[in-house]
Specification:
Radius of gyration: 19 Å
CATH superfamily of one domain: Periplasmic binding protein-like II
Strand content: 15-25%
Shape: globular
Largest sheet: 6 strands, mixed
Distance between the termini: 30 Å
Oligomer: single chain
Strand order of the largest sheet: 2-1-3-10-4-11
Number of helices: 12
Number of strands: 11
Order of helices and strands: HHEHEHEHEEEHEHEHHEEHHEH
CATH class of one domain: Alpha Beta
CATH topology of one domain: D-Maltodextrin-Binding Protein, domain 2
């Protein structure tokens, strides 16, 4: 059993502080309402069980639904009517955290930090995203921003998606702190609410640097090539274990197995590989609680240097 560091028990650290980037937030949400309901849909007699699948905010809700709706459709076809999986997006990391820890989701795809917390709320790890080498933080700057060394960020604003974003916030903060900055005092931290807005803040010169992780950066380059050409990845962190697949402890084992096998089989056929490529990802794979021991070790190191104070 994993022993949790104190940082996971800090209520203020769990909630965090989300400082929204107004310009970027309006651009991302305009004209789109994500599929979200405050409570599970009622089940009628004889109807298949509805299983809510929550994915943490890898992207804004519109992009997340575009990427994961086809995967949910693929899974549902392979469940053969035994149950129906429904995707639920969240507008922010804070909203996702609240729903996960309140046990709203039957299945979820949390980041590794959220995964370690979810174990204390009756979830278990049964799988994960592959490609662990992609689970690393990257720090972007403008090409004309004059930021060449970590020390050039002293006194500047650095944008991050959210306090509980492991690859895109905690790992970059740790990197900066261990490469010459006091991340508690030497920079102003702007929590912008999403991966996209963290990057846009750099383009718009609202921050001197912005943190994210490879999949959102790759998506940003495709969807906003003009903006992306003005930015460059200046630093990268070492990788950690990728995002987990978790199941709530009251979901029948047969349904967990069926859901898992559908996801684990995506890379085995042409349709599944096409769906994975949109994420981008090569496969989902089996995993267990012990897989995330390196994450707990990182969190201990993080707390010993930065502590909960770094998230305020």
């Amino acid at each position: 059993m994993i022993r949790f560091p104190r940082v996971l028990r800090a209520a203020a650290f769990l909630a965090g502080v989300l400082v929204l980037s107004a310009a970027c937030g309006r651009n991302e949400d305009a004209g789109y309402t994500p599929r979200y309901s405050p409570s599970a849909a009622p089940r009628t007699e004889g109807a298949p069980r509805v299983l809510i699948f929550g994915v943490h905010p890898l992207h804004n809700p519109e992009r997340l639904n575009a990427d994961y709706d086809p995967i949910v459709d693929y899974v549902n076809r392979r469940l053969g009517g035994a149950a129906v999986v429904r995707l639920e997006a969240s507008r922010s990391y804070e909203e996702f955290d609240k729903k996960l820890y309140a046990r709203r989701f039957d299945f979820a795809l949390p980041n590794p930090y959220q995964t370690v917390n979810a174990l204390r709320h009756g979830y278990r790890v049964f799988g994960k995203m592959g490609d662990d080498g992609s689970f690393r933080g990257i720090i972007l700057v403008r090409k004309d921003g004059g930021i060449a060394k970590v020390s050039d960020l002293k006194g500047k604003t650095v944008s991050f998606p959210a306090p509980t974003a492991l690859a895109a916030t905690m790992m970059p903060l740790y990197y900066l702190h261990t490469h010459g900055l006091d991340a508690r005092r030497d920079i102003r931290r702007l929590f912008s609410g999403s991966q996209e807005s963290s990057m846009m803040n750099v383009y718009l010169r609202k921050s001197a640097a912005g943190a994210t992780w490879p999949p959102p950066w790759e998506a940003f380059q495709k969807s906003n090539p003009g903006f992306a050409r003005e930015l460059v990845v200046r630093w990268e962190t070492p990788p950690l274990v990728n995002n987990a697949l978790v199941a709530r402890d009251d979901v029948p084992e047969a349904l967990v197995d069926a859901f898992a096998q559908a996801l684990f089989g995506l890379h085995a056929d042409a349709e599944g590989r096409r769906l994975l490529a949109a994420l981008p990802l090569t496969r989902f794979e089996p995993a267990g609680e012990e897989t995330y021991a390196p994450v707990v070790a990182f969190l201990r190191r993080y707390e010993s240097i930065l502590g909960a104070e770094a998230q305020r």
